[in-house]
């Protein structure tokens, strides 16, 4: 296997971004893909010692093996004798050094989630209740302390640094590893992280062999303990970068850009950290300029001479000014790029690029939320970070696809619940204009929690998408004096690191005191109906619905069936603490002082199975979309009222009710047209006025055929929707989200499979068994169908459809060379005419 990691440039060059568009990488993080080839060439030709920084995305070439949390002999001897930490460099595990036979280890790429590969496991009876709960929380994946054989994973990778890198600063940037990981280089424990969510850096220069020897990276990752009550995955599930920089360099998170709009444009202040890896003092010049989206220089700070102490760090402050800046907003997410260069003896020895945006954000107790002075309602989604087929190992392109699906629904903001978001997601939000509430995992003040908060802020504060820091969620101490004090300390840390943003905390009670006094914007989880009375008591405090709705539904199902864990998708079903979409949105829409609301959730997610916390419910039913991102009916409720200028009618249920002829079927229309007329088989059942922020209902005696809704504005037909009684499943259709893809790990094709009748109508009840074959340099990395009770494997080549739909996620396999080619994915099923889609992967 010749897989080797890819080298990439650190940040987006605006020209690269344009190239990405030209290549048709719609929606994909241009941060990585187009640069790969160019950067490889640079790698091949540039003498390492003289080159500016080199950055590799360590996505390929990893080896993986399960360890064991209870049996040292199955855990590569980790901790086998008393001397584990006695002599640094003499690590007791042979798996941590280069000279080790890894031939029995599997080949994996990163991002990687080993939990998603585990079989779904119903709790063995009799199971202790807490063990069963932990398994249910994980979506019936047997991971945690009770399952030591599934809970530790080891990774190995040969690092592409060495010889020419002597004297350089070399480090690894992990964006998120679940969890408790130890990072070894050549047998030295170089670093690690307890947190499964906060990004971290590991300096490795001291442990490398510069004399031509191999440089071996190894990780032991221990997911025995959880940090949440939902599926959290396991392993190196976010991107990893390796950086080799000159001794005089900008360290990770070393740039901080702030802008303030003034009469003449925008004043841009730059706080920059420079570090010296060498043992001698270094005299350097710091040169910084700003480029606009087209790559034109629009500002330049006066050069600064800096003396760097041996092995020291120095912070500098500079100012510059941009005349007539274009502002960042959801409608126009304009980015600038700060170019930071470090010069020694007149030569550029290090260079970074920091994208940023210029915008003003306010939360007001009377006016709600404004961006650049304009009132905007936050129409938000909360999301965890897993997807069908791949668990938490989300390729960058899938992040982008999920953001796009949300934007189509009308979503303008996202709450990363309940943990810091992936940097890839933040980059995408910056570029697509999705606003973000960034949330830390732990609402406490112990050193670990403070450090995690700090890492979240330092890694994310240049992202214009981030509009609020959230310091907690439904904490037991939220309403108490202790809760106030803890949040006050977290807020103080936020302000010290980032005085430009406000803070919030998601609370489900106790809003009259406690943490609500410590944060700037009070967050209500549910109980939206209590906000008006609370607002009377606290008229000067900004407020937001940090969690709203929490309706539960099975996509495409229209009758409850408790025995089969099916929940109907009318906007009627929710747990006791929650409300319908229509109830909460009507309150928020009519109250200018409420900044907005974030529905729980945009997508169904694994684990926390609600409303049925028992096998085979392996997922939550909360999403406006299912776990594949297929729209449920509530998606269209929001789409109607969150994009009111786009006429819409959406009809439910489906119209396949054989055996129910003549019986009344509840028919709903979501939509935003002034009037909607319903017709059955061409006969009008009447025209009704659509209540603002509401929906319409009819009881329609069932007769097979065509149910049709026509939406009128000003008396003219503006939108329509139909449901046709479909016949038996006869054929398949498969469509891809794009035509062209990069062969990089960061890219992926999202395939939608539909089961159709002879006439080409979707069969809305079809659960046909499907088989997938791939020809050419591609492979399926995950399958799904959105059924929260499906316990079929996420991997492989077979999956049933669910209510007519299935999804496949396909990646290029030109891995060693990054080579592209034509890939054909064919989907077949017994008695069904098969279908295929052609994808083109470029290198
Ligand atoms: C909230 C919690 C979320 C999720 C949700 C379900 O209480 O913050 O994580 O559990 O309820 O409605």
Automatic annotation (TrEMBL):
Residues 368-611 form the Glycoside hydrolase family 2 catalytic domain. Keywords: Glycosidase, Hydrolase. Transmembrane segments: none annotated. It comes from the Bacteria. Gene3D superfamilies: Galactose-binding domain-like (2.60.120.260), Glycosidases (3.20.20.80), Immunoglobulins (2.60.40.10). Pfam families: DUF4982, Glyco_hydro2_C5, Glyco_hydro_2, Glyco_hydro_2_C. Residues 257-359 form the Glycoside hydrolase family 2 immunoglobulin-like beta-sandwich domain. Residues 662-717 form the DUF4982 domain. InterPro entries: Beta-gal/glucu_dom_sf, DUF4982, GalA-like, Galactose-bd-like_sf, GH, GH2_Domain-Containing, Glyco_hydro2_dom5, Glyco_hydro_2_cat. Residues 732-837 form the Glycoside hydrolase family domain. PANTHER family: BETA-GALACTOSIDASE (PTHR42732), BETA-MANNOSIDASE (PTHR42732:SF1). Belongs to the glycosyl hydrolase 2 family. This is Beta-galactosidase GalA. It comes from Novosphingobium clariflavum.
């Amino acid at each position: 296997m010749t897989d080797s990691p890819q080298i990439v440039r650190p940040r987006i060059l605006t020209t690269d971004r344009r190239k990405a568009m030209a290549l048709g990488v719609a929606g994909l993080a241009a941060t990585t893909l187009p640069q790969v080839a160019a950067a490889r060439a640079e790698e091949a030709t540039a003498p390492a010692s003289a080159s500016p920084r080199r950055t590799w995305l360590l996505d390929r070439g990893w080896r993986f093996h399960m360890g064991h949390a209870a049996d040292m002999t199955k855990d590569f001897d980790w901790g086998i004798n008393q001397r584990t930490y006695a002599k640094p460099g003499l690590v007791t595990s042979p798996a941590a050094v280069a000279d080790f036979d890894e031939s029995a280890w599997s080949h994996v790429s990163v991002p990687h989630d080993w939990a998603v590969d585990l079989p779904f496991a119903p709790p063995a009876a009799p199971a202790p209740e807490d063990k069963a709960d932990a398994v249910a929380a994980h979506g019936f994946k047997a991971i945690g302390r009770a399952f030591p054989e599934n809970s530790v994973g080891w990774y190995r990778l040969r690092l592409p640094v060495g010889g020419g890198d002597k004297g350089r600063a070399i480090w690894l940037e992990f964006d998120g590893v679940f969890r408790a990981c130890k990072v070894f280089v050549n047998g030295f424990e170089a670093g690690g992280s307890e947190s499964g969510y906060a990004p971290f850096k590991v300096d490795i220069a001291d442990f490398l062999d510069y004399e031509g020897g191999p440089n071996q990276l190894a990780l032991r990752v221990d997911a025995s303990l959880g940090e949440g009550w939902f599926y959290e995955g396991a392993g190196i599930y976010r991107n990893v970068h390796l950086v080799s920089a000159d001794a005089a360099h900008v360290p990770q998170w070393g740039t901080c850009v702030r802008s303030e709009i003034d009469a003449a444009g925008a004043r841009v202040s730059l706080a920059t950290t420079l570090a010296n890896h060498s043992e001698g003092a270094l005299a350097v010049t710091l040169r910084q300029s700003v480029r606009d989206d087209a790559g034109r220089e629009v500002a330049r700070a006066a050069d600064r001479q800096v003396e760097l102490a041996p092995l020291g760090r120095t912070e500098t402050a500079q100012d510059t000014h941009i005349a007539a800046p274009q502002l960042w907003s959801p409608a126009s997410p304009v980015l600038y790029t700060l170019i930071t260069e470090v010069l020694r003896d007149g030569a550029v020895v290090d260079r970074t690029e920091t994208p940023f945006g210029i915008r003003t954000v306010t939360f007001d107790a009377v006016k709600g939320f404004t961006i650049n002075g304009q009132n905007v309602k936050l129409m938000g989604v909360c999301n965890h970070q897993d997807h069908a087929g791949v668990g938490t190992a989300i390729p960058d392109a899938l992040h982008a696809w999920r953001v796009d699906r949300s934007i189509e629904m009308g979503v303008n903001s996202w709450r990363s619940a309940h943990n810091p978001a992936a940097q890839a997601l933040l980059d995408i939000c910056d570029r697509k204009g999705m606003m973000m509430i960034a949330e830390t995992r732990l609402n406490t003040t112990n050193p670990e929690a403070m450090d995690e908060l700090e890492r979240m802020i330092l890694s994310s504060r240049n992202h214009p998408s981030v509009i609020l820091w959230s310091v907690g969620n439904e904490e037991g101490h939220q309403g108490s004096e202790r809760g106030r004090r803890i949040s006050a300390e977290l807020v103080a840390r936020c302000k010290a690191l980032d005085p430009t943003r406000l803070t919030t905390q998601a609370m489900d009670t106790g809003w009259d005191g406690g943490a609500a006094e410590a944060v700037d914007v009070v967050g209500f989880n549910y109980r939206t109906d209590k906000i008006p009375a609370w607002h009377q008591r606290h008229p000067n405090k900004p407020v937001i619905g940090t969690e709203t709705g929490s309706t539960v539904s099975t996509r495409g199902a229209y009758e409850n069936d408790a025995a089969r864990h099916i929940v109907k998708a009318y906007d009627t079903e929710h747990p006791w603490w929650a409300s319908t979409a229509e109830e909460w949105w009507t309150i928020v829409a009519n109250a200018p002082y409420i900044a907005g609301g974030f529905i729980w959730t945009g997508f169904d997610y694994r684990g926390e199975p609600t409303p049925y916390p028992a096998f085979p419910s392996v997922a939550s039913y909360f999403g406006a979309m299912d776990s594949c991102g297929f729209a449920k009916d509530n998606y269209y409720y929001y789409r109607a009222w969150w994009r009111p200028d786009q006429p819409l009618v959406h009809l439910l249920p489906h119209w396949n009710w054989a055996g129910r002829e003549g019986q009344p079927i509840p028919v709903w229309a979501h939509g935003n047209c002034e009037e909607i007329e319903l017709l059955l088989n061409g006969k009008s059942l009447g025209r009704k006025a659509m209540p603002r922020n509401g929906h319409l209902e009819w009881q329609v005696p069932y007769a097979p055929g065509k149910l049709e809704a026509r939406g009128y504005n000003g008396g003219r037909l503006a939108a329509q929707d139909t449901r046709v009684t479909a016949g038996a499943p006869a054929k398949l259709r498969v469509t891809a989200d794009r035509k062209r893809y990069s062969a990089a790990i960061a890219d992926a094709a999202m395939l939608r499979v539909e089961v159709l009748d002879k006439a080409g109508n979707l069969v809305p009840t079809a659960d046909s068994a499907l088989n997938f074959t791939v020809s050419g340099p591609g492979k399926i990395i995950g399958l799904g169908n959105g059924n929260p009770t499906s316990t079929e494997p996420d991997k492989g080549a077979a999956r049933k459809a669910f209510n007519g739909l299935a999804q496949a996620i396909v990646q290029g396999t030109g891995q060693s060379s990054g080579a592209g080619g034509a890939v054909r994915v064919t989907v077949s099923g017994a008695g069904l005419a098969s279908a295929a889609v052609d994808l083109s992967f470029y290198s």
